[in-house]
């Protein structure tokens, strides 16, 4: 069920009649929305790009991401719900996904990423361009904070490093990557401007 507020469609799940709005079933839904919404807000720049093509009919990119992830990213039962980081999507599209992604923590709070340059000869058919931008969402599990590396690397670079806050040293980082098209905006077709998300795994950041 949805509603419109200030011109934006708000995604809601609400039964036709609720005698006790604080039942476990209702609290379960509220907790899921709260946990997922808080997580996505930490990586909002990546979500805004990754779900841009789904932001139609006054549905925001964030609401599209909530709808995509809500039913598949939780493990456990209420109230002991846990996000399954490996199932989270920050994007949905039809570019060729990143492959061969590896993570390595280096001294000085540096996160090193590498990936395969999977640019194909017939790039128009397989949707892989050397100029496609790699977007990386990086989430600190302990601090519940996130940063997004946006536009620093291209598909053909095959490697890159990200400098992270000193306060993150010793914490567990989860990383998701996807591509955004490097083509001119007028050449981007709906649903083709990003790839699906790849969960690159987790790593402990060195000091």
Question: If you had to describe this structure to a student in words, what would you say it looks like?
Answer:
This protein has helices spanning 24-42, 44-50, 61-69, 123-126; strands at 2-5, 8-11, 74-75, 82-83, 102-106, 110-114, 133-140, 145-154, 159-163, 172-180, 198-204. The protein is α+β, with helices and mostly antiparallel strands. The strands form 4 sheets. The chain has a 4-stranded antiparallel beta sheet with strand order 8-7-10-11, covered by helices on one side. A hairpin with a 2-residue loop joins strand 1 (2-5) and strand 2 (8-11). Helix 1 (24-42) crosses helix 3 (61-69). 30% of the residues are buried.
Please tag this protein with its features.
3-stranded antiparallel beta sheet; Immunoglobulin-like; alpha+beta; 207 residues; 19% helix; 11 strands
Q: Helix/strand/pairing class, anyone?
A: alpha+beta
- Please report the total strand number as a whole number: 11
**Number of helices, where a helix is a run of at least 4 consecutive DSSP H or I residues:** 4
Which percent band covers the strand fraction? Answer: 25-35%
Largest sheet: 4 strands, antiparallel
Query: What is the helical fraction, as a range of percent?
Result: 10-25%
Residue runs with pLDDT of under 50 for 5 or more positions? 10-18
Q: What is the name of the CATH superfamily of the largest domain?
A: Immunoglobulins
**Radius of gyration, Cα only, in angstroms?**
18 Å
Compressed to H and E, one letter per element, the order equals EEHHHEEEEHEEEEE
Any idea of the CATH class of the largest domain?
Mainly Beta
